[in-house]
Amino acid sequence: MEAAALGHFVSGLDKATKVIIVSNRQPWFHERVAERIRAFRPASGLVTALEPIIEAVGGTWIAHGSAPADRLVVDRKNRVRLPEDNPRFTLRRLWLTPKEEEGYYNGISNRALWPLCHLVYTKPRFSRSDWETYRDVNRRFSDAVLEEAGNSPAIVFTQDFHLALLPRFLREARPDLKLIQFWHIPWPNREAFRIFPWSGEILDGLLGNDLLGFHIQNHCNNFLDTVDKSMEAKVDYENFSVWRGGRPTFIRPFPISVDFRQIGIDAGLETVQAKKEGFLAQLGPSAAGTKICVGADRVDYTKGIPERLRGFDLLLRRNPDLKGKVTLMQLAAPSRTQIEEYRSINDEIEGLVEEINRRHGSEAWRPVHFLRANHDYHAVIAAYRMADVVLVTSLHDGMNLVAKEFIAARTDGDGVLLLSQYTGAARELTDALLVNPYDTDQLADAMLQAFRMPEEERRQRMARMRAQVEKNNIYEWGRKIFEELLRRVSFGKGRDAAGKSPRPHPAAGRKHPYLAVVKYLTYRCSSAILGKVNSRLPGGPA
Ligand code: F6P
Questions:
Q1: Atom of ligand 1 nearest to the CA of 335
Q2: Comparing 52-66, 80-94, 335-349, 526-540, which segment has the lowest mean pLDDT?
């Protein structure tokens, strides 16, 4: 499915229904650059994925306005139309005080929920006053959504762990709203989650949704198990749903993706070529003709950057003949720098880079280039185009869109992806070299395998991965979510004036959603007869 088809499909759900996306991170931020105010896209997988969707479906996106010039471009209602060159949606900014940002964003979101959900041995930290702030900020987002919805029917599509209480607040205020939430990070097992002191409230908040999505089935299963063992609710494992307060919440896997086609087009732009030349100049003449490995991450302890560097170090120790023949270029976007753990991971990385360069480098050749900056979208695409190998070594990651962006950018059909088996992406991209990033020997071996891989094999693997990302692109992700909502909630009199239920755009080449329900029921009945009911359908029941 492509953008126009998704836009058509969603607008066909019900003409009067507004679509509101809510997240902490905004899709664009404004900064002053030499007397001009310019809009930029932040380094965020969530934004990479959701921005094409909001452009396709229109509507309003509510998010925290956090950049220096954000207030200078909004109207009296804190709204701005975006993107600047071709406005297709409204961004409504919500302002947070430093105290709110500290308790809600640094505190509960990033010191507590983030390490709790990513099992990477970083202890979560909890504070009651942060929790109170988190609750208050969720309430403020709820007020903003209610104001934007007015008296109209609306679908509210909430993003991520910053806003776990929002759906319950909305449900209490407006029981008729259609509520979806996508949780962009892993959901841990119940044993890990139960140490969160306000776990009951988080679960209750999320169960305000009609539909709750995770990247993979395993996270859905963990969520159902957490609910089952910790609160008063009926968990229906047959239908992957939870009943609480007389209403169901459907739990489904929707592996997120990227705008495959657009990234491919952008990869051919002159701007990208210019950025590529800029990088090559930065790396210097010694990098020319070497194999180039690229990493592109936020500086975050979940991304496995030190592990990647140790793997590269071991590779050079074991294969001294590679010295002067390989270069590692690490793009590193500063992130969450108010938090101690993020500052110390940055120090650790800088120390390792220095050590590797001292140990293996020479006057003529520097093995690792650590480029710490907010590289813009075109620069990141340029880096993917330069890469012989892209390294994604996350210790735990809901999906990881760097992997998919890299594949989409390689319209030339070449390049190797080395991918952590602990990412959601590893489930789909089985043609990557899958690695355990904790195993330094294995990482070094895989890097060597990547350098030595014959061109024919590289191209075959890349072709299969490109077919996969093309098929499950971001619009397909959006379609599956909205189609699932349509199956699960009644749009009743909210349907279009002719009383017709919405149909997907013909270009989507999809059958009517209800046919899929019938198909699914038929499947379940026949499976039952055969005594082979599989209660854990991959991809979730239709
Ligand atoms: O994907 C998880 C996520 O936390 C998103 O919510 C977020 O936009 C991204 O990572 C980057 O983090 P942050 O918004 O805290 O900079």
A1: 16
A2: 526-540
pLDDT in tens, 8-41: 778 777 778 999 999 999 999 999 998 899 999 9
For ligand 1, atom 2, the nearest C-alpha belongs to 184
Q: What's the CA angle centered on 426, arms 423 and 429, to 5 degrees?
A: 145
**Cβ 508 vs Cβ 9: under 8 Å:** yes
What interhelical angle do 305-318 and 340-360 show, nearest 10?
10
For 76, residues 6+ apart whose C-beta sits below 8 A from its C-beta are: none
Cα–Cα distance between 90 and 60 in angstroms, integer? 5
Dig out the tokens for 422 from the structure. Answer: 């602990």
Best probe residue, ligand 1, of 23, 24, 44 (max atoms within 8 Å of C-beta)? 44
3-state secondary structure of 52: helix
Determine if ligand 1 sits within 6 Å of the CB of residue 400. Answer: no
Task: Give me ligand 1 centre to Cα 333, in Å.
Answer: 12
Question: What b/e sequence results for 381-400 when a residue is b if at least 16 CB atoms lie within 10 Å of its CB, and e otherwise?
Answer: bbbbbbbbbbbbbbbbbbbb
Residue entry with tokens 């294969």: 319
For residue 522, what are its two tokens?
Answer: 């038929």
Q: pLDDT value at position 241? A: 97
pLDDT by residue (tens digit) across 400-427? Answer: 999 999 999 999 999 999 999 999 999 9
Residue nearest to atom 14 of ligand 1 (CA): 25
- Enter the tokens of residue 42: 């932040």
Is residue 95 exposed (0-12), middle (13-18) or buried (19+ Cβ within 10 Å)? middle
What angle (nearest 5°) sits at the alpha carbon of residue 353, between those of residues 348 and 354? Answer: 100
CB 214, CB 187: distance < 8 Å: yes
Centre of ligand 1 from the C-alpha of residue 365, in Å:
35
pLDDT in tens, 39-61: 999 999 999 999 999 999 999 99
Q: Which residue has the tokens 């030339």?
A: 412
> Is residue 85 helix, strand or coil?
coil
Give the distance (Å) from ligand 1 centre to CA of residue 339: 14
Ligand 1 atom closest to the CA of 398, numbered from 1: 1
Torsion over CA: 97, 98, 100, 104 (sign): positive
Cβ–Cβ < 8 Å for 14, 150: no
Q: How far is the CA of 75 from the centre of ligand 1 (A)?
A: 26
